[in-house]
Structure prediction request, 189 residues.
Amino acid sequence: MITFLPSCQKSEDLLSQLGVVSCNFWVDVPLVLKRKESPVMYIERITREKITKFIEENPESYSILSCYKAIFIGRRLVTKPQNIDDFHKLIKLLSGRNHAVHSCVIFQHNGKTVIRRTITRVKMKVISKEEVTLLCHNFEESFENFWNYTPKFSRFCIKIVGSYTSLLGLPCYETANILEGVVAKESLT
Prediction:
């Protein structure tokens, strides 16, 4: 059985849809972008820190799969809004702009580590004042729709280039390839 350190509830759902039996654990690590750290370095570091923290608490772990996603506009990390004012600023910031969702999957098994990173680019439409007001009126629901790129929020996305499942928290293609590759290598030995 695989120990899975998900990035969100959606990533748990996606892994089970891949047919993977896992035992899920939530691991909290500080989500702070270090000075001069690139988006790719950031997501890989956070994903590794989750594994390290889990192993410190559970040294007998055998197979660990960890994932994490982060949203960037250029090199600027987009953090989860804490209140309606933050959400309003976030919507105004994304309106009419491109942003990138960086994700990382790390599988650690038998002392070996396999890493896959994805970048999914999203082009947002210009969001009108009325739409911003409507989104902010239903802050809780709008925030969940945005952060998980649900169909309700996708009406604001002009274009998505890359892995849609990466937007949800787990790049399924890359994850399946990692797991299939490990199984294939073990069957050869």
Summary: Residues 131 and 137 are 10 Å apart (CA to CA). The two ends are 20 Å apart (CA to CA). The chain has a mean pLDDT of 87.
